[in-house]
Amino acid sequence: MGHREDLLEGAKRCLLAKGFMRTTARDIVKESGTNLASIGYHYGSKDALLAQAYVALVEAMGDAFEGDGGLDKTPPGSLERFERVWSNIVGTMREPGSVWRLSMEIVALGDRLPEVRDHLAAAQREAGRGLVPLLMGGREEDVSDDTADTLGTFYVTLMTGLIAQWTFDPKSAPDGAQLAAGLRRVMQAATDAAP
């Protein structure tokens, strides 16, 4: 690997071990076997590197969201698929040292990490674009901007709330079955209210 890749891998390890605020440029350099100047050269800043490392960690979770291949047995857009996907996502939150705790650190730090926040805010649409085919079927590259901005945003909002609940109180946080039951109730109420 080159310095760029070494830095990214070192930053990922540092994030999981220390989080955003406690990770220093020197920590990343030590973990990656590179030098301080290479952070600026390849990424512009430590915060930009940490933001890219976080996005890479989240993207690596995609396979876990699909689970053991059982999604092929559930119809796209069905409540069964909704429950299975969210159960798989919740499974990633139950793991010790979950990457999702970093999300809550970003939310809590807000304006103190503007470069990280701005980079991750730009990644939100793409996160939603990735969740849509997982739940609804199809291919990510076929998800329109309108669908990413509506359905994708809905899924990202649900994910963010779920992360917050699992971080704050994992004992009472919902699982996939509870989320599907809630969605059933919302759908029933909407059907009952329709003229």
Automatic annotation (TrEMBL):
UniProt-recorded name of the protein: TetR/AcrR family transcriptional regulator
MF annotations from Gene Ontology: DNA-binding transcription factor activity; transcription cis-regulatory region binding
Keyword DNA-binding assigned: yes
Alphabetical UniProt keywords: DNA-binding
Annotated DNA-binding residue span(s): 24-43
InterPro entries the UniProt entry points to: Homeodomain-like_sf, HTH-type_TetR-like_transc_reg, HTH_TetR, Tet_transcr_reg_TetR-rel_C_sf
Signal peptide extent: none
PANTHER family listed in its UniProt record: HTH-TYPE TRANSCRIPTIONAL REGULATOR RUTR, TRANSCRIPTIONAL REGULATORY PROTEIN
Protein's UniProt keywords contain RNA-binding: no
Residue span(s) of domain HTH tetR-type: 1-61
Classification lineage: Bacteria, Bacillati, Actinomycetota, Actinomycetes, Kitasatosporales
Gene3D superfamilies associated with the record: Tetracycline Repressor, domain 2 (1.10.357.10)
